[in-house]
Amino acid sequence: QETPVSKTVKAMLMLPLNTGTGMTGSENNMDFYCGVLLAARDLGLNGTDIELCTYDISGGSARAVNEAASGCDFIIGPISTGDLREVLTGVPSSIPVISPIDPRAEVLAKGHVNFIQTPASTLAQYADLVSWMNEEAGPEDRIVVIYEKGMRETPETAAVDSLMQKSGRTWSSFSYSILEGRNVLSSLESLMNPASVNRVLIVSESEAFVNDVVRNLKLMIHDKYGIVLYGPSRTRGFETLDVDDLHAVNLHVSLSYYVDYDSPEVQEFLLKYRALFNTEPGAFAFQGYDIMTYFVRMRTRYGKDWTDRLSETGTERMLQSDFRFRRKGEGGLENSGIRRVVYGSGYSVTQQK
Q: pLDDT tens digit string along 131-170?
């Protein structure tokens, strides 16, 4: 067991909890707060002296509590990009500000050296999907990237185009609109090989378009084509997509968050959370626990210069997330840790290690 450089950590948590407004607070925010509290308890029992200052910033400016940040090792929160920007403009650049939930807040990393983005972005998911697809593709496999017509100029599509070009593999690009319906099936099949595996990456956040692509791929499977579909986290969250269809197209999905309930660590967390809070933890409780645990460990392991060491460390597997931080140019740090999940035969859903 490594000897900690520091055994004392002072952290600040900033959340809109609505404690003084007479209104019911957000269940997600309270779950996150409870996860942080449980992490602080566990870290304290393991010998770390934790000083946690919690501020309810609902109904007011996040900048109002900036003076209280003096002496903190890091700040967790706020949630929204606007509130995070206010805090970053008010606190010294020596105090790390950790974005806990909103993946869109990644834009702040470019201009703030003390900003740390923990949710992996959609771009990071697509980067992992391209790598995953290329890792699995055999020499005879076909690779097809499907876009929604008229949506080719988004950051995600530009990034996928660039990544595919750098991969050195032969691939086909295909775009259509849902108004074209089943008329696209013959055109799509012309890009496929019935004698090999056809690996399809869908670049779209549109539920209707993803639905249409999955329907067309199912028809191709019926025509004896071997299909593996790759998609970002939103793909599996669309309510109108039948889970049976996800298994039928062998969905491979790259996720920012995934909880393996068979994990002994997860099961231990569940028992402690139920005992302390008399309820089941949601995804935000896992996120609060992971973030508090990880950053306290980094602070105690590396001392005052701990943020400079984050980009040098390997992937840390937490309960719900993987943390692997890289500095964005001369700015802040962003997480590129991704979990891979496969919807396989027999209704299996397995995480790839």
A: 999 999 999 999 999 998 877 577 788 888 899 999 888 9
The token pair that represents 222 in the structure block: 């019926």
pLDDT-derived band at 177, boundaries 50, 70, 90 = confident
Q: d(Cα 321, Cα 338) in Å, to the nearest integer? A: 7
CA distances from 6 to 12, 28, 118, 165, 338 (A): 17, 32, 23, 46, 29
Distance CA 128, CA 124 (A): 6
Question: Do 59 and 21 contact (CB within 8 A), yes or no?
Answer: yes
Give the DSSP H or E segment for 244. Answer: helix 243-248
Q: Using CA atoms, how far apart are residues 310 and 327, in angstroms rounded to an integer? A: 9
Backbone torsions φ then ψ of 212, nearest 5 degrees: -70, -40
DSSP secondary structure letters along 292-329: HHHHHHHHHHHGGGHHHHHTTS--EE-SS-EE-EEE-T
Is the Cα torsion angle 160, 161, 167, 171 positive or negative in sign? Answer: positive
